[in-house]
């Protein structure tokens, strides 16, 4: 009897250990076809903000895994064979591979999921534009900017003729790839009139997403060629939606605004804009943008006399890209002019590549000012010749000029005795007896209030039609209860 029970238990354990059937992983074609269904749903519901964002995010998720064959199968599933979109996209895929647009093999059909692609007859312009975006992603990732520039130019001409608000988000992404492809082939200046015309059209059509994207593309064009005056004129005169529609585009705009302000000597505004750009950028998917914005922010803070903490320059997510700026900050902190010159000469190519070289050159005066502050705090009286030796200046005459300018600008407190050729330091002043702590407290309070206001503006509320309002009787009853509670509180106070 015991043996029979053991055998039954063994049989039950065998039944329990049967392999569990798992659903097959969706193929690249099925994922892209599901994005097409999302786009068609967005067009029907006229809700393109959230649904389009989901479709584009899912496309970015499979972007690195897309192959030419996957894209061909996807286009064959969603586009009619004789459509204009298929005829325009097919040559670019044929150039990437010798494989023709054939139907998938039976083995491939068996391994894919049961997701049914949309019917080719239900083609809408938004699906046409999305197919062009998918092919453009592949061409840019395959390092074929010439083909991407040609395809994006033709797609923009076709899509710009359609005045459909459901195309705004996709057209903005198309314009981004149009600018990127021409930038890679060195023709960014040639497409500037086209971008200006597209921005004007987007403004007239009240295409807010297009306005933000095209404005950033134009600012990038101007800054790439060093046209800061034209970039500032465009920035001040161009219309922008308030509040911003795209957080990513708003972060880019703040970065460009900070760069313009830094070059035009408005360091305080530049620091605020660059700090907001770094804070608004996605923490995981925008490492390159955060690194570039942080480089500019470090230089601007050094120009303002602020030295970033060591932890800010050695963060794990930005490690390896801020090495030259770490050496620069160390030289400014120590007030060592020779170390600053060595760091600027060693990383000269890096600063020119990052377009921060002009700002780095301006830091020489900050290094001298930091060294003079140290000397002024350490000595009550010191000769100008000794100052020249400590600060690494060529002569005592140049040290006199530098010290005189620092005294005039308020960098140090002291007077120059020309008869003895010495600097006489002023009396130490208690910083808490000045207005500096109040100014710092005001700056921090203003930052917190601005952060709160931005958070409130970013909140999305349901339409009024969806809110459940109480009828007049319930509202009157609630007011009576509040009035009665207030009267009882008054009686208690008395």
Taking pLDDT < 50 over at least 5 consecutive residues as the criterion, the unreliable ranges are 1-5, 98-121, 465-470, 489-494
Structural class, judged by helices and strands?
Answer: mainly alpha
Strand arrangement, major sheet:
1-3-2
SS element count, helices: 24
Order of helices and strands: HHHHHHHHHHHHHHHHHHHHEHHEEHH
Please give the number of β-strands.
3
Report the C-alpha radius of gyration, rounded: 32 Å
Shape: globular
Q: What's the story with the biggest beta sheet?
A: 3 strands, antiparallel
Residue-averaged pLDDT: 77
Separation, N- and C-terminal Cα atoms: 88 Å
**Share of helix among residues?**
55-70%
Strand content: under 5%
Describe, in plain words, how this protein is organized in 3D.
Among the domains are: about 25-105 and about 115-185, no CATH class; about 380-425, Orthogonal Bundle (Arc Repressor Mutant, subunit A). About 70% of the residues lie in helices and about 0% in strands. The chain has helices at about 1-15, 30-45, 50-60, 70-80, 85-95, 105-110, 125-140, 145-160, 170-185, 190-205, 210-225, 230-235, 245-265, 265-280, 285-305, 310-315, 325-335, 335-345, 350-355, 355-380, 385-390, 395-410, 435-460, 470-494, and strands spanning about 380-385, 415, 420-425. A hairpin with a 4-residue loop joins strand 2 (about 415) and strand 3. The model is unreliable at about 1-5, about 100-120, about 465-470 and about 490-494 (pLDDT under 50).
């Amino acid at each position: 009897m015991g043996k029979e029970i053991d055998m039954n238990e063994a049989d039950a354990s065998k039944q329990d250990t049967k392999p569990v059937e798992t659903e097959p992983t969706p193929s690249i074609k099925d994922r892209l076809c599901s994005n097409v269904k999302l786009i068609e749903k967005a067009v029907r519901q006229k809700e393109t903000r959230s649904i389009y964002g989901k479709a584009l995010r899912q496309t970015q998720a499979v972007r690195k895994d897309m192959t030419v064959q996957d894209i061909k199968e996807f286009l064959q599933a969603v586009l009619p064979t004789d459509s204009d979109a298929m005829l325009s996209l097919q040559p670019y895929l044929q150039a990437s591979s010798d494989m023709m647009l054939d139907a998938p093999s039976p083995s491939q059909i068996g391994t894919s999921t049961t997701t049914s692609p949309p019917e080719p007859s239900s083609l809408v312009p938004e699906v046409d534009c999305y197919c062009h975006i998918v092919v453009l992603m592949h061409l840019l990732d395959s390092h074929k900017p010439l083909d991407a520039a040609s395809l994006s130019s033709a797609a923009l001409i076709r899509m710009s003729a359609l005045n459909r608000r459901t195309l705004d988000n996709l057209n903005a992404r198309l314009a981004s790839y149009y600018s990127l492809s021409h930038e890679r082939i060195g023709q960014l200046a040639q497409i500037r009139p086209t971008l200006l015309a597209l921005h004007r059209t987007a403004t007239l059509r009240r295409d807010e997403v297009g306005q933000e994207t095209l404005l950033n593309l134009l600012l990038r064009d101007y800054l790439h060629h060093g046209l800061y005056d034209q970039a500032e004129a465009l920035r001040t005169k161009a219309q922008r939606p308030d509040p911003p529609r795209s957080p990513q585009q708003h972060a880019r705009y703040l970065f460009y605004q900070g760069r313009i302000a830094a070059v035009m000597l408005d360091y305080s505004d530049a620091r605020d804009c660059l700090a907001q750009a770094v804070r608004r950028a996605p923490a995981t998917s925008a490492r390159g943008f955060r690194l570039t914005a942080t480089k500019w922010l470090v230089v601007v803070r050094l120009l303002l006399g602020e030295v970033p903490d060591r932890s800010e320059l050695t963060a794990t997510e930005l490690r390896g890209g801020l090495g030259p700026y770490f050496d620069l900050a160390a030289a400014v902190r120590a007030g060592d002019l020779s170390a600053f010159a060595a760091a600027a000469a060693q990383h000269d190519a890096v600063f020119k590549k990052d377009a921060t070289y002009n700002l780095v050159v301006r830091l020489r005066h900050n290094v001298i000012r930091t060294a003079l502050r140290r000397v002024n705090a350490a000595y009550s009286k010191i000769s100008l010749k000794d100052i020249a030796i400590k600060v690494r200046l060529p002569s005592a005459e140049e040290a006199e000029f530098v010290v005189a300018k620092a005294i005039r600008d308020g960098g140090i407190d002291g007077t120059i005795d020309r008869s003895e050729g010495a600097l006489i330091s002023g009396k130490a002043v208690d910083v808490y007896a000045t207005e500096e702590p109040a100014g710092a407290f005001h700056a921090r309070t203003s930052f917190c209030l601005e952060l709160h206001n931005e958070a409130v503006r970013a909140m999305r509320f349901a339409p009024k039609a969806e809110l459940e309002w109480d009828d007049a009787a319930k509202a009157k009853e609630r007011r009576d209860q509040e009035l009665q509670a207030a009267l009882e509180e008054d009686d208690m106070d008395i």
